[in-house]
């Protein structure tokens, strides 16, 4: 298997117009030999799924899963499983859209919607990416602080320097970037497998927790301010993220395909699905291990501070751990150090994928391209601002206040994901359902279509259902009656705005699809008359 690099001789401007192939520098650059056996072919196509899986195990997932385990034992395992299965379905459709249509999701939406709607959706998606970037900044800065005792303010600034890492990666080729991401995933997986293995969890309880019950989404039982529903919404919100759909539809096009050969396209779709499902299975394992950690590594109810600081401290505090083996290892500092290393690896992985996604949506929605390092520098500097403000405002307070403020900022920033997710899922489903877009062979089958609509409607409903509590979270742990009323009014106004924007999106997409069908028929008629 070889990798070619598209390097035009012309000199690129810093910011320029872009309306060509998705991620043009790497599009179709990796050749896959024909007539290999299944496993060699799978290896050749493997890689894009790993970059996508990173988004399903980023720092934003950690506290929600561990806290869910602390509060409700293994009951929320079923939520992680359901979220992972939905992710597999959506990512399969995203990869298929990119491979068959030769457009990423942003390009496909923009081609079928008005310019004004395209700009609105671009801004919405940018906010969602910046929200995930805030979690990465916080995770990486805290990891540097915990590992090297670097003051938080300085650690936050150091996270900006990851742009230099990105510059280096752009020089070594996309296949090597895929390999680095896989290695970092394996580091994270090793850390949590090791810690959970030492804890000797109740595997019967784990398996039982994979089956959802009526209590899984209950609101009647509250533990430490969390109901099963709010815990489930936290896990879902941290797992299924919109930017992964844009990313996968772009990087699925890195393999060289003969689009005149339907069998070659079908083979690419097939192995892209295998790659995605295998890598997302690893993400499911990591998220499950995080929840199992909350149950088995720590004593029940021991973790009062679910922030990264609190979890790090708990892994070195022998009075919080569940058995003698863990206690003996914790005395060496290995448990807490491994946790911080995994946190740093997760942040660096998300750096790579977040930057690629940002370029995809910028080129697709507003046809503007800038170098990856500049794109990363701009978004990282914007994301650093709220983190720095948070650190500076709490610098004179106690360590607990500082930790709580950072944790709340990370959790509250995720509210933007609830806004953006329907506007990636719904267009994706509509376009992959369409024979005009995908052709009769590649459009969604009836059962994929049914499961897709169930997933889109269910996730949209759950995200909107949790929006009032998410807004209320901005007012701290003890909001006043006035703040509660204001948050509800604001949440309902936002829900109304989201629903109105969804209607606008559906209307524009249907009109654009009709126009696309007419263009196809006209082209076919013209060809027939020759």
TrEMBL record:
GO terms for molecular function: cadmium ion transmembrane transporter activity; manganese ion transmembrane transporter activity. It comes from the Bacteria. Coiled coil: none annotated. The keyword Transmembrane applies. InterPro entries: NRAMP_fam (IPR001046). The keyword Repeat does not apply. It is found in: Membrane. Its main location: membrane. One of its GO terms (cellular component) is plasma membrane. The chain crosses the membrane at residues 72-95, 116-146, 152-170, 177-197, 229-247, 280-300, 320-345, 377-395, 415-434, 446-466, 486-507. GO terms for biological process: iron ion transmembrane transport. NCBIfam families: nramp (TIGR01197), Nramp_1 (NF037982), PRK00701.1 (NF001923). PANTHER family: NATURAL RESISTANCE-ASSOCIATED MACROPHAGE PROTEIN 2, SOLUTE CARRIER PROTEIN FAMILY 11 MEMBER. This is Manganese transporter. It comes from Lactiplantibacillus plantarum 2025.
């Amino acid at each position: 298997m070889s990798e070619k690099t598209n390097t035009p001789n012309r000199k690129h401007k810093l910011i320029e117009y872009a309306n060509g192939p998705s991620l043009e520098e790497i599009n179709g650059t990796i050749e896959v030999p024909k007539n290999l056996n299944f496993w060699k072919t799978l290896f050749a196509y493997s890689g894009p799924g790993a970059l996508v899986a990173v988004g399903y195990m980023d720092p934003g997932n950690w506290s929600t899963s561990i806290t869910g385990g602390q509060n409700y034992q293994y009951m929320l395992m079923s939520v992680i499983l359901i979220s992972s299965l939905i992710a597999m379905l959506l990512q399969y459709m995203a990869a298929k859209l990119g491979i068959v249509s030769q457009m990423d999701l942003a390009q496909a939406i923009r081609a079928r919607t008005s310019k004004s709607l395209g700009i609105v959706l671009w801004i919405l998606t940018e906010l969602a990416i910046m929200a995930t970037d805030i979690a990465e900044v916080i995770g990486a800065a805290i990891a540097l602080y915990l590992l090297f005792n670097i003051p938080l303010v300085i650690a936050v600034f150091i996270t900006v320097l990851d742009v230099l890492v990105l510059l280096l990666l752009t020089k070594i080729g996309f296949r090597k970037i895929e390999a680095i991401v896989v290695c970092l995933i394996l580091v994270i997986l090793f850390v949590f497998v090791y810690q959970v293995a030492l804890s000797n969890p109740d595997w019967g309880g784990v398996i039982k927790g994979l089956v959802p019950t009526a209590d899984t989404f209950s609101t009647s039982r509250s533990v430490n301010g969390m109901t099963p529903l709010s815990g489930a919404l936290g896990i879902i919100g941290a797992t299924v993220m919109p930017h992964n759909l844009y990313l996968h539809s772009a990087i699925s096009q890195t393999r060289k395909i003969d689009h005149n050969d339907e069998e070659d396209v079908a083979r690419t779709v097939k192995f892209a699905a295998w790659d995605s499902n295998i890598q997302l299975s690893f993400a499911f394992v990591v998220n499950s291990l995080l929840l199992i950690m909350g149950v088995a590594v720590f004593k029940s109810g021991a973790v009062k501070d679910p922030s990264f600081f609190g979890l790090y401290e708990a892994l070195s505090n022998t009075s919080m751990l569940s058995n003698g083996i863990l206690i003996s290892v914790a005395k060496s500092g290995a448990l807490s150090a491994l946790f911080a290393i995994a946190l740093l690896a997760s942040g660096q992985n998300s750096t790579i994928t977040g930057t690629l996604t940002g370029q995809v949506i910028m080129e697709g929605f507003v046809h503007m391209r800038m170098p990856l390092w500049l794109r990363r520098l701009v978004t990282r500097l914007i994301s650093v601002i709220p983190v720095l403000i948070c650190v500076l405002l709490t610098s004179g307070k106690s360590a607990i206040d500082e930790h709580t403020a950072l944790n709340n900022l990370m959790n509250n920033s995720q509210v933007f994901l609830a806004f953006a997710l329907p506007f990636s899922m719904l267009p994706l489903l509509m376009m992959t359902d369409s024979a005009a877009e995908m052709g009769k062979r590649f459009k969604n089958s009836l059962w994929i279509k049914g499961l897709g609509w169930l997933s889109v409607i269910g996730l949209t409903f759950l995200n909107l259902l949790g929006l009032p509590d998410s807004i209320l979270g901005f007012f701290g742990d003890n909001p006043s009656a006035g703040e509660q009323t204001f948050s509800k009014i604001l949440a309902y106004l936002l829900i109304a705005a989201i629903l109105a924007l969804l209607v606008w999106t559906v209307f524009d997409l249907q009109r654009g699809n009709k126009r696309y069908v007419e263009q196809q028929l006209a082209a076919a008629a013209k060809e027939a008359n020759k």
